[in-house]
Write a structure and sequence with these properties.
389 residues, alpha/beta, Rossmann fold, Dihydrodipicolinate Reductase, domain 2, seven-stranded parallel β-sheet, seven-stranded mixed β-sheet, 32% helix, globular
Length: 389
């Protein structure tokens, strides 16, 4: 099979390298508009199967030309390019995988259009969304009635430093700050909850205290929870303790506001200026010694017959010093690379937009977790069953 990877930033090279290592893969091509990133990717992937080419993701014609002739195109770039990549792939008759998935709607005419194009698109195939959805979905399979679905996930610096104890470990130049509301399920009803609320303390091994807080976006997992009539659903992000207080302080001051303000005769957006100022401080720099960890926690409870069932999944992943791979690139990139090959092999029969939680099930789910374990990414499953007396 032939695989095209768009975006040679923090995730793309890991996806490309892992795909190139598979004997079933004949060719892998990495694309980016930045020549220096292409050169770095060539050195990193270091495979005769791998080549690179420039591609402008803002140009439909450029994308179609780049995608033609491949079995799978993996969008490892920003979610803002997702729909453009999808439409180009439809024209090129190439299956699509999208790491972020945030650019995909949960319904609409595009679903019929992709199905009619005869291709399969799998969005949200990283960690969150991605592994989180798959693990929650698998846990629900153990139950007849699902009562509570909870998860918390975060990519963090191994050695946090002030002022925010945070580094951008996924990619881009803007940290994910998004005050507002997010849909969750509370006592069986869909409700909008404020982000940065319901703060809980989390303690992980040797690391300093962490906290989780309500965060997220409308997702395929939320939709599945509604179908399963889940009573309570919470999706949370993990940061080091004190993060929420700092964000709330900045918000109260208006520093991360999105409403333009007048400064010396010019209009500026406070949050845009904030990102410009903070990026040099929170940029993840491996060469300077930055290392990361990824924490993933899933808890699902319900009933199976007369038994109460609790299922948890835990993953504490660390930077790979031997192979010089960030934890976020491992957990996200390996997951995406494995699913890309599953897609390219024809194992997913359904056409159209298919979220991972709908199609990476059964043997494919086991294949994914087994392949991740072979690569050093271990997820611990714990199932507890009790009978009320």
């Amino acid at each position: 099979m032939k695989i095209l990877v768009l975006g040679m930033g923090l995730m793309g090279p890991t996806v490309a390298k892992d795909c190139a290592s598979d004997k079933r893969v004949d060719k892998v091509t990495g694309c980016d508009i930045d020549e220096s990133k292409l050169q770095a990717a060539m050195k990193y992937v270091n495979s005769k199967k791998f080549d690179t080419k420039k591609a402008d993701l803002t140009s439909h014609e450029s994308l179609v030309t780049a995608i033609n002739g491949y079995d799978v195109v993996v969008n490892a770039s920003s979610a803002k390019f997702s729909m453009g990549v999808l439409k180009a792939a439809m024209e090129a008759k190439c299956n699509v995988e999208d790491l972020a998935g945030g650019g995909y709607p949960l319904d609409g005419d595009i679903y019929n259009e992709v199905e009619k194009a005869g291709i399969t698109a799998i969005p949200g195939s990283g960690v969150d969304p991605g592994l989180i959805d798959l693990l929650c979905g698998q846990a629900m399979e153990y139950m007849d009635e699902v009562e509570d679905v909870n998860f918390a996930c975060g990519g963090l610096p191994r050695d946090p430093k002030p002022p925010l104890d945070y580094k951008i470990v996924f990619g881009g130049t803007r940290m994910p700050i998004r005050p507002g509301k997010v849909p969750m399920i509370v006592n069986g009803e869909l409700k909008e909850l404020d982000r940065y609320t319901e703060v809980e303390s989390i303690y992980v091994n040797k690391y300093q205290e962490m906290e989780s807080f309500v965060d997220g976006f409308p997702s395929s997992l939320l939709k599945l929870c509604q179908e399963k009539k889940v009573k309570n659903f919470r999706g949370k992000t993990i940061r080091y303790s004190g993060f929420v207080d700092k964000i709330m302080f900045l918000q109260d001051l208006g520093v991360i506001g999105s409403t333009p303000v007048n400064y010396q005769g010019r209009e500026i957006v406070p949050v845009d200026l904030f990102h410009e100022l903070i990026y040099p401080i929170i940029k993840f720099d491996e060469a300077a010694g930055d290392r990361d960890i990824t924490v993933l926690l899933v808890g699902v409870s319900g009933k199976s017959g007369d038994l109460e069932v609790d299922v948890t999944y835990d993953m504490i992943d660390e930077y790979d010093e031997e192979h010089k791979i960030t934890s976020m690139a491992k957990t996200t990139g390996y997951t995406a690379a494995i699913i890309a090959r599953i897609l390219g092999s024809g194992a997913v029969k359904k056409k159209g937009i298919q979220w991972p939680v709908r199609v990476i099930r059964g043997e494919l789910f086991e294949e994914l977790l087994g392949s991740l374990k072979e690569r050093g990414v271990e997820i611990t499953e714990t199932i507890t069953k009790t009978r009320s007396v």
